[in-house]
Amino acid sequence: MTNPVLVEVSRGAVVESRHRGAVSVVDGDGVTLLDIGETAVPVFPRSAIKAAQALPLLESGAADAFGFEAAEISLACASHSAEDEHIRLVRDMLSRAGLNEACLECGGHWSSQNWVMRHQAGSFSETPPAICNNCSGKHAGFICTAAHLGIDPAGYVKPDHAIQNTIRDTLEDVTGTRHLDALCGTDGCSIPTYAIPLAAMARGFAKMVTGSGLGPQRAAAASQILNACMTEPFYMAGTGRFCTKVMELGAGRLFAKTGAEGVFCAAIPELGLGIALKCDDGTTRASEAMMAATFARLLPEDDPLQSGLDAMTNVELTNRNAIHVGNIRAQLPT
Length: 334
Known about the structure:
Elements: E1 5-11, E2 14-27, E3 32-36, E4 42-43, H1 50-53, H2 55-59, H3 62-65, H4 70-75, H5 84-96, H6 114-121, H7 136-149, H8 162-175, E5 184-186, E6 192-194, E7 196-197, H9 198-210, H10 216-231, H11 233-236, H12 242-250, E8 255-259, E9 263-268, E10 273-279, H13 284-298, H14 306-313, E11 314-318, E12 324-330
Antiparallel strand pairs: 1-2, 1-12, 2-3, 2-10, 4-7, 5-6, 8-9, 9-10, 11-12
Helix pairs in contact: 5-7, 8-9, 9-10, 13-14
């Protein structure tokens, strides 16, 4: 089966690029409501699964012990832009556990946002340190969990570390899918990442948003995590980023988290729906349009969010002279 074209990019009146993809939507009872493309094929969720990876931070009692509120919890789920406030809060999270950024094992890189990168260039002559990694908030969450449990955080990125074992067990419970060594890769920030079907990811986020199929403690932690991200979306992404914008638009009604290579996990709390999608070629702009189109498909036609979602589903492209030259348009098959 070949995944359908879900996004077209035009230049003038001509379609210049086409992007294929797959989308899965599941409700709290495990019923599939939308199934487009190859949703049973294992794919790496990458950073899109971070909200589930943060569950041990809350379930262990570490978040309460260190006084973490919505901003810190959102940052523990983040692929942040390394803006100054992101860096400040990661340092603060680590300091509350009596630790510092030397504990981070995620490696450093320049920000994905050009304006932040230019700011970084004034401070770093070489690659920025690990605290500037877009995953440093997630890693701070891992380290703080280990510290609270009395576990040595050294080597916490390795598949056989106690923290990664806990995360793997948690992900298996939430998604209802075995995370197999044969389908394990190494993520950009050095932790293990396991390929699982999109349908399993969607089912997992439906469970997180409804609590169905989860124990009481896990259901409460999942609700707190998703609410934190929707309340403080800046800390989960950054200024002008898609996840920030769509959750600001939703104002507590939409949750979305991107991952590398065109993956998204998302939820609509009021409808009890979990969503997962992937753009086959890994293009960010196409996966974002797919995500907006999926939200739009699932909400009522007269919903006040529709106009904002339409602007993200049908994006005008301009050149360097601000001339309108084409469009990105996502359209899901009926």
